[in-house]
Amino acid sequence: MADTRILVVEDDVNLLATLKYNLQKDGYIVITAVDGTEAVETARKKKPDLIILDVMLPVMNGFEVCRILRKEMTVPIIMLTAKTEEMDKIVGLEIGADDYITKPFSMRELLARVRAMLRRTRMTVPGSTVNESVLRIRDLEIDPARHRASLGETILDLTPKEFDLLAFLARNKGFVFNREQLLEKVWGYDYAGDTRTVDVHIRWLRRKIETNPHQPEYLITVRGTGYKLEG
Fold this sequence. Notes:
This protein is an alpha/beta fold.
């Protein structure tokens, strides 16, 4: 944890100071940015291990920042959204955010989300101590130890949470899981999001692994139950 860098992007200077203090107290190196352009430049230069990104930012909003960074890196992104703006959550997930937390929030909850996200990311990064065999399902190949997935000769550009979801379903090929089970198994027991999070990530995965996302051959919906990865 001593060398874990977190980029916090927030234009409210008081909240930014509070977040920085608590994250540093928890043992993280904290980098800050106060607008969208600075956030993109800082992320590119500093290569943080996790980004906490507010939606409402000057110069460039959090959605645009997320879109840009998601095309360039797979760093986990937690978005901060206004409590009344339900669409912010959906849009954030649609463009590649891994998690969201609504304002106002408790610092304890935020720190728990950060720890859970980093813990799950470390389990599958290159050099991980996890010695797990490569998973193969037809043309789909998933390498948990190297945190890499490919379809045929094409390396898949997956976010950390997309990879976690795909790897979990691959380990349990053919078994059907409902949304609540997937939230528990993939996002963790302390995740407080709603089940649409699962639907959004399934939709993103289908765009990346299916020839026709509207007629999936790998990620199958079992009507009234949930999802499975077909072998």
